[in-house]
Automatic annotation (TrEMBL):
<dbReference type="GO" id="GO:0004017">
    <property type="term" value="F:AMP kinase activity"/>
</dbReference>
<dbReference type="Pfam" id="PF00406">
    <property type="entry name" value="ADK"/>
</dbReference>
<dbReference type="Pfam" id="PF05191">
    <property type="entry name" value="ADK_lid"/>
</dbReference>
<dbReference type="InterPro" id="IPR027417">
    <property type="entry name" value="P-loop_NTPase"/>
</dbReference>
<keyword id="KW-0547">Nucleotide-binding</keyword>
<dbReference type="InterPro" id="IPR006259">
    <property type="entry name" value="Adenyl_kin_sub"/>
</dbReference>
<feature type="domain" description="Adenylate kinase active site lid">
    <location>
        <begin position="132"/>
        <end position="167"/>
    </location>
</feature>
<comment type="similarity">
    <text>Belongs to the adenylate kinase family.</text>
</comment>
<dbReference type="InterPro" id="IPR000850">
    <property type="entry name" value="Adenylat/UMP-CMP_kin"/>
</dbReference>
<protein>
    <submittedName>
        <fullName>Adenylate kinase 4</fullName>
    </submittedName>
</protein>
<keyword id="KW-0418">Kinase</keyword>
<dbReference type="GO" id="GO:0005524">
    <property type="term" value="F:ATP binding"/>
</dbReference>
<keyword id="KW-0808">Transferase</keyword>
<dbReference type="InterPro" id="IPR007862">
    <property type="entry name" value="Adenylate_kinase_lid-dom"/>
</dbReference>
Length: 221
């Protein structure tokens, strides 16, 4: 089996995945694949794939599994020779995506080495989303209550302005959580059968969660 690492992050919006990404990237020297960021990039660049994505989103439809896998495949085959592996955020969201992704990795003699699931009660997710602030260029995440910046609405390192994402509101979160709870059980079951599922309590301090992630990964990888 290839020595490259593939780690996927499961968990609902606001579960703390974004906060933990730098810790995992630094520890294992991985490249990041963010499904959301790549969807936006394809649409912005008006690629053929981007036009397809825009059509589905404009018509209120989910982006088909095959398109998500195409993006992942493009990334893996372009960068795999130069990379130690990838941290995947935002995929797979369905069991079918998980199956297709595993099949695609098998073609290059790789596999998903770990799937980290962050468990957080829905009421806590609503509270987190309500106060979340983002530094766009770095992806650093703050929270008005739980992790406030040193200067209000300013990034601690660059002093650049922080923003609140348009989709960080209760109405949109409710819709996203409904979709998440519909599909996540089968995704968890899939990775559990492969003995790569790591289930963690996401309702704790970021530092404690970071420690648990690294301990769990060291045992599995």
């Amino acid at each position: 089996m290839n020595s490259k690492l593939f780690i996927v992050l499961l968990g609902a919006p606001g579960s703390g995945k974004g906060t933990q990404i730098p810790t995992i990237l630094q520890k294992y020297k991985l490249d990041l694949f963010s499904t959301g960021d790549n969807l936006k990039k394809e649409m912005k660049n008006e690629t053929l794939l981007g036009k397809k994505i825009k059509y589905y989103l404009a018509n209120g439809k989910l982006v088909p599994d095959q398109i998500i896998i195409e993006m992942l495949e493009d990334l893996v085959f372009k960068k795999s020779k130069k990379s130690n592996g990838f941290l995947i955020d935002g995929s797979p969201r369905t069991e079918n995506q998980a199956i297709l992704f595993e099949q695609m990795l098998n073609k290059i003699n790789c596999k998903v080495n770990a799937a980290i699931d962050f468990l957080v009660p829905d009421n806590i997710l609503y509270e987190r989303i309500k106060g979340r602030l983002i530094h766009v260029s770095s992806g650093r995440i703050y929270h008005k209550k739980f992790n406030p910046p040193k200067i209000e609405m300013r990034d601690d390192i660059t002093n650049e302005i922080l923003i609140k994402r348009k989709d960080d509101n209760p109405k949109i979160l409710k819709k996203r959580l409904k979709e998440f709870h519909k599909f996540i059980p089968s995704v968890r079951k899939f990775y559990s059968k492969l003995n790569v599922l790591i289930t963690l309590n996401g309702n704790q301090s970021a530092k404690q969660l970071s420690n648990e992630i690294l301990i769990s990964l060291n045992k599995l990888i």
